[in-house]
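Q: Could you write out the predicted structure for this multi-component system? I'm mainly interested in how the pieces pack against one another.
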Amino acid sequence: MLLGIDVGGTHTDAVAVDRNGVAAACKVRTDHRDLLASVRGALENILGSVDRSKIRRLNLSTTLSTNAIVEGRTEEVGVLVSAGPGIDPYNSMLCRHFHALSGSIDHRGTEAKRLDQAEINAAVDGCLNAGIRVFAVVGKFSTRNPRHENAIRLAICRGEAQCAGADFVTMGHELGGRLNFPRRTATAFFNGAVWRLYNRFADAVEKTLADLQLGHVKVNVLKADGGTFPLALSRKLPVQSIFSGPAASVMGIIALCDITHDSVILDIGGTTTDIAIFAAGAPLVEQDGIHIGSHPTLVRALKVRSIGIGGDSALSVFQGAVRVGPNRLGPAVAEGGVTPTLVDALNAAGLCSQGDAEASRSAVADLARAHGLEPGDLAQRAVQAAAESIHEAVRELVAEINDRPVYTIHELLEGRRIVPKKVYVMGGPAQVMKMPIFRCFQLSTEVPADFAVANAIGAALTRSTWDLELFADTEKNMLFIPSLSHRQNIPRTYSLEEAKKDAVNHLLAHLGGLGVVLDNSEAQITQAVSFNMVDGQSTMGRNIRVKCQIKPGVAFRLTGRG
Amino acid sequence: MLKAKNSLGVIFFPAFDWSISPTHPEREERLLYTQDQLKEEGLFDIEGVHEYKPGVASIEDVERAHFCFPDVDAVATRSHLIAAGGAITAARLVLDKVQDRAFALVRPPGHHAMKVVHGARGFCNINTEAVMIEWLREHYGIKRIAVVDTDCHHGDGTQDIYWHDPDVLFLSMHQDGRTLYPGSGFPKECGGPTALGRTINIPLPPGTSDEGFLMALDQVVLPILADFQPELIINSAGQDNHFTDPITNMNVSAQGYAELNRRLAPHIAVLEGGYAIQGALPYVNLGICLAMAGLDFGGVREPNYDAERLRQPKKVTDYVKEVCDMVPKLYFDPPKEPKDGVFADNWFVRRKNIYYDTDEITEAQTEMLHLCGQCRGLLKIESRSTNNPLCLGLEIPRGACDSCRNMGYKILEESQLKGEFRYIQFVNRRDKEYVRYGF
């Protein structure tokens, strides 16, 4: 039995599932001041109908870190960067205690300028004297060579293994091998900013589980990329737990439907419609990373586009054209609101009868009269406009994905293009919007069963994912896997094939060490390139880059049952 | 957060799967470290800076700029068509007002490719900028264009293509041809009889640093541009004037290149040469991107930059000054007669021998321009090379007069009857007709 809990903005959804389907489900209101109470409430509810000894795993999706950042309940972080030449590092200054240190490393990982020890000590002392206990240390090109980050960390910790100087230090290279110094800095900063809060919550969750005699349950935390990671690991990388909500819903659809083609997933909520795109049955991951506040980060996420069209989006008429959203002035008149919304249009068009349908009809009639339109016509056109806006947004998103830059002739001329063949709709108005959406897309349109708790089902069934980048430079006889801080000497003959094998082995060994046992076939090489490095007429070595990932997936599907 | 003053589109296409040969300077690795640097700097996260995928130039796009023998497919690989397509993408972004500026960071380069193409010269097969410019004229009706070539090698290909074109001002600043490939680019080369003073060459002595480079810009290029008033300024942004470049002898730094682009403010830049792929390109390309976007580039410095070592000797400064004093006259008061070629019956005739160093081809060519006085004039080129027997290129220009147009068809007909040409490429820009014969 697997448990999934999705602590969302309004509701906390929980399910218990096994191969036979959903054994128990519940929905409780989220208490923003006490998320733990929401988790506990949902757990107790589920335990009412499920044998606790059969529960093996709990997957948790929480808005804790997101909310803390949005509400500014984060801790001050001392950010120390070594940037070197290029764009002024103060452009990525995120906080008060930000120190740009001299010293630089170039794109090959060669130290171009040494650090200044006195300067580091002064910066560290400044932070410690100001009461800073959490640090982020980031170097430009530290994913090629972490030497400066390690040296700065050593200075913060005063050389002690236990690090008396600070409670926690995030080093940039541990966040992964992707290049982007400003994003790495922002990610390290946010990781530090939520670290303490997150760890307190993690402690409390573990204690609660022990109290409920669920100490044997393995706990994973959802990430935004459609995967989970073990609670122990999430304690060091809490930033990865951000924005996992949309991913839970998308993974739910995977569990509920047998998606094999290029597809569009629409989750029509109250305020927004979330659009996700699947390529050959697998969800697409954002190339770069999500924005937190206005700061781009390295936190990977499923590609989800939100547009301002939902059940509570207001209707408006402008120069004879009927529009829906993007303003939310809900709730709908049918639910006691004042401005007619998409739900009211659906009621007035006779497509559904949610709440007080009569109130919807009269509100829509008022709006129609004010603009000299037939009420029935207005309602129909509003529903049509909503479907068309969604269709347009999907078209744009697909075009954007197909137009993303590529770097080889092969990909440019023969690269795969995404052509959606099927649409899946979920969310409150899913059933009634199905036909209008079908008419716009002219594609097979399906509304899965159990879509109301798809997010919690997704949370429950999502498997662990992880990814790593391996970088090898045979001229320097050096191999480096930034996220594992693994450096190793390699011979000059080291090849791309060996690099691929090493990347997979390190990925699986790392997850194995955290209790996630996977088989070789589940690791996927997403990039493997080797460049000859030439100086004059002679080849000096090879520059090898391999990316490897466990792709998002579910433990099992709930299709074809019953 | 940073925000670009001028929005900038960057068409980044490193062609990671294409090289001339594994150890050739023009190889897969060339833009690898540039990519690393641009990504690590977070350039594409800056508000107003966007990355785009290049388009692919069509056969006709190439034929608007070149006579290719035996045909386009034989002389241009897919990577060339993508590089030219990337430049077209850049131009579209600017002319459609999607972006204020655009930089086509594409390879391979193109500025040594001349009007007639039998193969590769100076690592170039088709002229990226010329294909773009002719595309622009065809689709947007742009007339006056200035090309400022800042590659260290003389842009002899672009010069050749626009030799007779008074509406394209070609300015090249480069290391003196007596000391570097292709051995041309002297001030006296200043255009054909219908375009005298519209080709301007600024040869700079070896050892020129940022100071001399910017002096040539300020004293020659900018005053001429101010007078010419082009609708569009294009920078052929070669980067081999850099002090670390392995095949040239100049001392320009990333700061120099960035400052040049700040002052020149080109609408479009297109990467040309530059083979110090680790020490120069990452920094120069970053500098150019920032300068074009109107952002501060003060922090862009090569790790091994040493101001003292790169200081320009007085001797060099004095020489650059002399060049700068002499060259502007060629634009403002051009000579009355072209430096080479002969006039015969309303035709202007030039005979050229061209060596294609990359492909080891020798070409002998007779170029004839009809001096009709009504339009740009019919262009006829007879060419034979070690690759191809005698070939004919015939071009009826845009806006051709009836007489030139009719003469073009007449010559085409006669040539086919006589059968002396193995391949004929016939281009009628007026009626958009592109035909090849000989297959």
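A: Regarding packing and overall arrangement: The two ends of chain A are 18 Å apart (CA to CA).
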